[in-house]
Amino acid sequence: MLPLIMKAASAIILASTLANAQMVQVGQTCNLARNRLTSTTHQFLSDCVPTAYCDPTTSTCKPKGCRSDEFPFKFPQETAENPLPPLCPDGQFCPDEGDQCLPQVPVGQNCQIDRDDECQPDPNASNLQSPWNHKGAICLRFTCYWQNATVGQSCVVDNVVYTGYRSDGSEFATIVSRDNCVAPMLFCDAQDNTCKQALDLGADCGSDKQCISRNCGTDNKCHLPAGTVIQIPLWQYIVTGIGIVAFIGIIMASLFVFHKRERAKTQREIREYYHEQTTYRSSIIALHTAARDRTSIYSASESRLSQYDEHGQLIYRDDESQRHLLDASKRQSRLRNSVAMDDDDDSDEETAQGRRLLAGEAGPSGLASRESFNQSRLSLGDETPRGSFDYAHASGSGGYAAVPVRSSMDAPRGGNFKDPWNQ
Q1: How far is C-alpha 230 from the geometric centre of its chain's CA atoms?
Q2: In Å, what is the CA distance from 200 to each residue of 180, 193, 222?
Q3: What residues does 165 pair with on adjacent strands?
Q4: Are the beta carbons of 390 and 407 closer than 8 angstroms?
Q5: 422: alpha, beta or left, given left = phi > 0 and alpha = psi -120 to 50?
Q6: Which phi and psi angles does 143 have, rounded to 5°?
Q7: In terms of pLDDT, which residue wins out, 337 or 125?
């Protein structure tokens, strides 16, 4: 496609260059017989350049004396040194040659092709004027007419063939048919040359002039004119507005639901995370507490299960009776300022032996225990820190012995303890 377009453009440029080379400049000799219309576009041409015309009296090219277009073809931009030719006033026209303004031609006189402005206006121009005429006048077959023929009257048809070019450079023909029937309500039927009523939208047609819209589509149906502004009904505006609002509402609702679900999911994940962390923390605290309690029990066991024999030697006992005393001392919250005996936890035999010992009725084992207690008291003296003595059961001798237990409290040094024999 592009190469064909380039070839067509090159051909046009080349033809224009050759034509300019053959055109006669202002002041040079020209041939009046060469004034003509092109076969494709029906444009007027002469031997002179586009800004000049061939004077019939001198056969030389002279600058144009008038113009019919607001922006004439091939003229440079207007300046003070090079002004454009003037436009003709009302009642006059500028011919295709552009030599000078001439009076408009009355009906029945000759005119140039498609130059409706060369004809005198119709007296009833306000009722007949339309885009298909000039103030009610029309030029058909090089003759001026008024476009005022009605239904059933005879009419004149002028069919002009124009050549067009496609994008690939090929040519096609376009026929423009015009008549002097009142437009656009009527058209001239070429079969009997009489004016007939134009067809409505959607009717079958064979040419543009047969439709009241002057637009016969490729499907041979009458359509709206190409430049018609489409009028949209009010209900379509309302339905469109409701649809837009509903669409926006659906989008907003969908986003709200989606955001709510995502927020709930995030909150649930955060809650589960903190619950898991709290569970881990509680488990660690429980393990730490259990380990600390176990360490405290072992520490108390070492101190509570320690005792001295009659020779002042430290003895470590790990029998069931000593563990039982350990549990009893733990329930007494380590009140080491006195020797206490738990009547609820001790057996009846141990309780009776303790009472006999306190009453001085103990046998040799009781006396040995008392002597061991005195020796421990004398040996410790004031060197023993402030604390208490537990009265532990000696499984080997069947009696009791005072066992010093050191306290972690920072107190004045001394041998403060309670003598179970009140000595």
Answers
A1: 32
A2: 20, 21, 7
A3: 171
A4: no
A5: left
A6: -135, 140
A7: 125
Pairing of strands 102-103, 92-93: antiparallel
CA distance 330 to 323: 11
DSSP 273-319: HHHHHHHHHHHHHHHHHHHHHHHHHHHHHHHHTEEE-TTS-EEE--S
Residue showing tokens 């005072």: 402
Return d(Cα 133, Cα 123) in angstroms, integer.
Answer: 14
Q: Cβ distance 336 to 379 under 8 Å?
A: no
φ, ψ (nearest 5 deg) of residue 116:
-65, -25
Structural tokens at position 318: 């790990």
Give Cβ neighbours of residue 95 (< 8 Å, ≥ 6 apart). 102, 112, 115, 118
For residue 202 the two structure tokens come to 């959607």
- On average, the pLDDT of the chain sits at 75
- Sorted by sequence, the CB contacts under 8 Å of residue 179 that are 6+ apart come out as 140, 147, 149, 155, 156, 157, 158, 187, 188, 195, 209
Per-residue model confidence as pLDDT tens digits over 58-86: 999 999 999 999 989 888 888 888 899 99
Lowest mean pLDDT among 79-83, 109-113, 256-260, 375-379: 375-379
Q: Please give the Cα distance from 207 to 218 (Å, whole number).
A: 10
Instruction: Report the alpha-carbon distance of residue 61 to residue 46 in Å, rounded.
Output: 10
Contact status, residue 390 vs residue 339, Cβ threshold 8 Å: yes
Cα 151 from Cα 186, distance rounded (Å): 7
pLDDT tens-digit readout, 300-334: 555 544 454 555 554 544 444 444 444 444 444 44
User: Computed from CA positions of residues 110, 113, 119, 122, in that sequence, does the dihedral angle turn out positive or negative?
Assistant: positive
| Residue 172: strand pairing partners | 164
- Closest listed residue to residue 97, CA positions, set 80, 115, 79: 115
Q: 161 φ, ψ to 5°?
A: -100, 125
| Structural tokens at position 215 | 């637009």
**Residue (of 372, 376, 383, 371) closest to 415 by Cα position:** 383
Q: What's the CA gap between 15 and 118, in Å, rounded?
A: 32
pTM above 0.85, yes or no: no
**Per-residue tokens: 394:** 């000696």
36-37/171-179 β-pairing:
unpaired
